[in-house]
From TrEMBL:
<feature type="transmembrane region" description="Helical">
    <location>
        <begin position="181"/>
        <end position="201"/>
    </location>
</feature>
<keyword id="KW-1003">Cell membrane</keyword>
<feature type="transmembrane region" description="Helical">
    <location>
        <begin position="121"/>
        <end position="143"/>
    </location>
</feature>
<feature type="transmembrane region" description="Helical">
    <location>
        <begin position="221"/>
        <end position="242"/>
    </location>
</feature>
<dbReference type="Pfam" id="PF00528">
    <property type="entry name" value="BPD_transp_1"/>
</dbReference>
<feature type="transmembrane region" description="Helical">
    <location>
        <begin position="82"/>
        <end position="109"/>
    </location>
</feature>
<dbReference type="InterPro" id="IPR035906">
    <property type="entry name" value="MetI-like_sf"/>
</dbReference>
<feature type="transmembrane region" description="Helical">
    <location>
        <begin position="277"/>
        <end position="298"/>
    </location>
</feature>
<feature type="domain" description="ABC transmembrane type-1">
    <location>
        <begin position="83"/>
        <end position="298"/>
    </location>
</feature>
<keyword id="KW-0813">Transport</keyword>
<dbReference type="GO" id="GO:0005886">
    <property type="term" value="C:plasma membrane"/>
</dbReference>
<dbReference type="GO" id="GO:0055085">
    <property type="term" value="P:transmembrane transport"/>
</dbReference>
<keyword id="KW-0472">Membrane</keyword>
<comment type="similarity">
    <text>Belongs to the binding-protein-dependent transport system permease family.</text>
</comment>
<keyword id="KW-1133">Transmembrane helix</keyword>
<dbReference type="InterPro" id="IPR051393">
    <property type="entry name" value="ABC_transporter_permease"/>
</dbReference>
<protein>
    <submittedName>
        <fullName>Lactose transport system permease protein LacF</fullName>
    </submittedName>
</protein>
Length: 309
């Protein structure tokens, strides 16, 4: 018995030793990534928060200002409007991406493997395009006089539907949101489709034996079980939609006037055009807090219960 216990202890020590070696090797391999994340993300975020409480023009000495910059942001109507425009675009883009992406994943799931691969490539291809390129393409499509959309509407006798898509207040925000949502829908489609094909086949076979239609399968099996995946897709869409810089800059540049100037455009303007780095930093902190709160509310609303099957 004593020999057996000694042998067990030796085996346990060897296992612990090998586990520690693997942990050490894993830590060493992740060290470069940790260094990059620290210098590229963590330190800039901390510096931005510190800078938000100071006045600095990039040349003279930095002076502490307390919450003065935050008060200026809240008192500045243009900054508040920019945040509001970003909220409108982000919500429209997120809703568009989620609806299109989920519908496409449910449709592609029912086709054959070869056709499904072709459809997935076609619908995912816009995601591979930079947002600035997408913005420039849709600038040509939505131009008032020589735009493709207005010309097509004129050719088919629907002149009444022609519009200044990128020059009318309110409408321009909706158009930008729809374009950004369409571009991001491929990511949602791939994530939800991956979640669907990971579900047990037994569930679908049992539902067919019970006489369930595909619509009932979607409602009672697929959507409840892929909620965690939908929650992940929602988080990615929200974080992507709230950036709204490159596509807005490419499509309208924040204009005409400032009717589509979003918070990122306003922050860059304050920092690099007027050298008000402290004010821009405080604006970005406020914007980040708003995004975090909205993201938490949406994630809570969607839910993400995990099921064992």
């Amino acid at each position: 018995m004593a020999e057996k216990s000694t042998a067990v202890k030796k085996v346990g020590r060897k296992a612990m030793s090998s586990t520690r070696k693997l942990q050490l090797i894993g830590g060493l391999f992740s060290l470069p990534a940790l260094v990059i994340v620290t210098f590229a993300t963590i330190i800039p975020v901390i510096w931005n928060v510190v800078l938000s409480f100071c006045n600095w023009d990039g040349v003279s000495a930095m002076t502490f200002n307390g919450i003065g910059n935050f008060m200026k942001v809240f008192a500045d109507k243009s900054s508040m409007k920019a945040i509001g425009y970003s909220l409108v675009i982000a919500l429209i883009a997120t809703a568009t991406a989620m609806v299109i992406g989920i519908c496409l994943s449910l449709l592609i799931y029912k086709v054959t493997k070869v056709e499904g691969a072709i459809y997935r490539f076609v619908f995912y291809s816009p995601v591979m395009l930079p947002l600035s390129v997408v913005g420039l393409l849709f600038t040509l499509v939505l131009a008032t006089d020589e735009g493709l959309l207005n010309n097509i509407l004129g050719l088919i006798g629907l002149e009444s539907l022609q519009n200044a898509w990128l020059a009318k207040k309110g409408l321009v925000l909706t158009v930008i949101g729809l374009v950004q949502g369409w571009r991001s829908s491929g990511t949602v489609m791939m994530l939800v489709f991956t979640g669907i094909i990971g579900l047990p086949v037994d569930l679908f076979e049992s539902s067919k034996l019970d006489g369930a239609t595909y619509r009932q399968e979607v409602r009672h099996i697929i959507l409840p079980l892929v909620k965690p995946t939908i929650q992940l897709a929602l988080s990615m869409c929200v974080m992507s939609a709230f950036k709204t810089y490159d596509i807005v800059f490419a499509m309208t540049g924040g204009g005409p006037g400032d009717i589509s100037k979003t918070a990122p455009l306003k922050i860059i303007e304050q920092a690099f055009m007027f050298n008000k780095y402290g004010l821009a930093a405080s604006n970005s902190v406020i914007y980040a807090i708003i995004v975090i709160v909205i993201l938490a509310i949406l994630r809570k609303g969607v839910g993400g219960d995990k099921y064992e099957y």
